[in-house]
Amino acid sequence: MIQNKHDYKEYVREDETAMGYHKYGYIRKHRNPIWVFERVLRKHEYYNNCSKNVLLRAYYKHKHKRLGIKYGFSIPINIFGKGLNIAHIGPIVVNNGAKVGDYCRIHDCTCIGTEAGKRDEAPIIGNGVFIAPGAKLFGRIQIADNIAVGANAVVNKSFLEPNISIGGVPAKKISDKGSKGLLYNPYNK
User: Fold this and answer.
1) What's the pLDDT at 73?
2) Based on the domain organization, do 141 and 168 belong to the same domain?
3) Which residue from 186, 74, 77 is spatially nearest to 127, judged by alpha carbons?
């Protein structure tokens, strides 16, 4: 979670690296709508957590919400660690009780939610997790580090073994490959 200006700069730098935008020029990078959304998300986190400036806090809250509606992202603040990589514009729904570690790549049509009828029972997801399009993760579950969640998987139980791939309905272990090679992750090179 962003606690000061140094954390904010580190989060933005790692998000930029995870998305591969550190290679792009300023104009090309800042015209990308996903990058614009991620910067606003991080600024909203910074001003919400660190600043007493009510006007900037309200401005970035409004801008975050507006861009989320425009691009189909329902991603609350203080959920994702550094190195967030949103792959595509499209519906992504994340419950505000979820916790996701560093260097996560998330695709469109993904839902990270609670168990039906329970507000506080959301997933805890480790570092270096790849979440493919259409994946649904819900309930009080834990996902270990460096796991690849397959396309259209329905994950409703915990997977505590790191470096595996899971998929299917309901999800089960399908491979020992994990997320290596699928995303930027300095822990898993």
Assistant:
1) 96
2) yes
3) 186
